[in-house]
């Protein structure tokens, strides 16, 4: 049997004539190249079905167009070309094409003090569209970090002060006694709570960028927060992390403001929405802040 004899249901007329906004496939397994790394990704590929009379789109043509992503570094130009291929293979049927790529970028991170390093993965998604010949691309990246509550830190410090008054009132201060007291849990009797937190960054990119600035954005975000989650950790690194947390006490509002001010300076970003989620250890619910920004038109 050759393909001429195979029934082609997609070519039939639709029973109910109605255009559709998005038709395609979600979760296609795909190896991609990003920042020089071969990564496992999932792709969502779709087009509009403008011709309400047509029964279906040609899924295989979208699927095969994705082959172009296997050998070349993911770039806006490459995604633009794939979206053009989607539309060329659906001439007369579709005017809008969509391609989302979901992956985890891996970055090697040095320890704070010791000469060690380890890998961190950052969930990243790229959303590209070609609508009426206008190409648009957006990025979503998740950056994990640590946040220590400034209110909890102040309350803990007050308890320590009160204990100091109670333990040393009416006593001549001896350097050795104070030093021992400072090193004891009887003296430093309270600690602030901290939590693993997540920054969800949704970024609109300039049309003219050549590459996706993923690691630049992640580095800028981590530098702004100051308390990136660590990989390989020895005690010296953990101590440096404790210092970083103590010097970067953060409500979720502080984190959102820091990220906003950092990302608006990051090249290649024309607008963003960001959300920070502090998975509170004080509460069973999260503390969340959101912030938007859009570059003013020149
Ligand atoms: N349109 C559509 N196709 C589907 C769906 N589920 C599975 N398919 C299958 O996707 C396969 C590929 O479709 P096409 O791209 O039209 O395949 P084809 O007709 O051999 O290829 P062309 O000659 O390029 O059109 C077909 O075997 C369809 O049955 C669906 O929900 N909608």
Automatic annotation (TrEMBL):
The record marks 149 as: May be catalytically important. The lineage of its organism: Bacteria, Pseudomonadati, Pseudomonadota, Gammaproteobacteria, Pseudomonadales. InterPro entries: GTP_cyclohydrolase_FolE2, GTP_cyclohydrolase_FolE2/MptA. It comes from Pseudomonas neuropathica. It holds the Pfam family GCHY-1. Converts GTP to 7,8-dihydroneopterin triphosphate. It is an enzyme of class 3 (hydrolase). NCBIfam families: PRK13674.1-1 (NF010200). This is GTP cyclohydrolase FolE2. It catalyses: GTP + H2O = 7,8-dihydroneopterin 3'-triphosphate + formate + H(+). Belongs to the GTP cyclohydrolase IV family. Keywords: Hydrolase. Its EC number is 3.5.4.16. Pathway: Cofactor biosynthesis; 7,8-dihydroneopterin triphosphate biosynthesis; 7,8-dihydroneopterin triphosphate from GTP: step 1/1.
């Amino acid at each position: 049997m050759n393909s001429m004899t195979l029934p082609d249901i997609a070519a039939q007329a639709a029973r109910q004539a109605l255009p559709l906004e998005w038709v395609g496939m979600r979760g296609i397994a795909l190896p991609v190249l990003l920042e020089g790394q071969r990564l496992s990704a999932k792709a969502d590929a779709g087009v509009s079905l403008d011709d309400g009379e047509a029964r279906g789109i040609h899924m295989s043509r979208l699927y095969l167009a994705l082959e172009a992503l296997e050998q070349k570094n993911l770039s806006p130009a490459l995604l633009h070309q794939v979206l053009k291929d989607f539309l060329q293979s659906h001439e007369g049927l579709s005017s809008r094409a969509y391609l989302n790529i979901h992956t985890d970028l891996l970055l090697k991170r040095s320890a704070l003090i010791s000469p060690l390093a380890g890998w961190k993965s950052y969930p990243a998604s790229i959303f590209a569209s070609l609508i009426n010949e206008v190409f648009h691309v957006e990025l979503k990246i998740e950056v994990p970090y640590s946040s220590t509550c400034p209110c909890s830190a102040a309350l803990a410090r007050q308890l320590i002060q009160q204990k100091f008054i109670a333990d040393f009132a009416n006593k001549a201060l001896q350097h050795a006694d104070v030093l021992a007291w400072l090193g004891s849990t009887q003296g430093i009797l309270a600690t602030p709570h901290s939590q693993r937190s997540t920054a969800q960054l949704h970024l609109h990119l300039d049309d003219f960028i050549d590459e996706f600035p993923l690691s630049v954005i992640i580095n800028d975000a981590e530098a702004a927060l100051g308390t990136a989650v660590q990989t390989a950790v020895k005690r010296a690194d953990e101590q440096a992390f404790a210092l970083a947390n103590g010097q970067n006490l953060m409500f979720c509002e502080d984190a959102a403001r820091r990220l906003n001010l950092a990302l608006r300076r990051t090249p290649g970003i024309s607008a963003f929405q960001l959300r920070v989620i502090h998975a509170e250890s004080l509460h069973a619910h999260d503390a969340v802040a959101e912030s938007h920004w859009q570059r003013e038109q020149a």
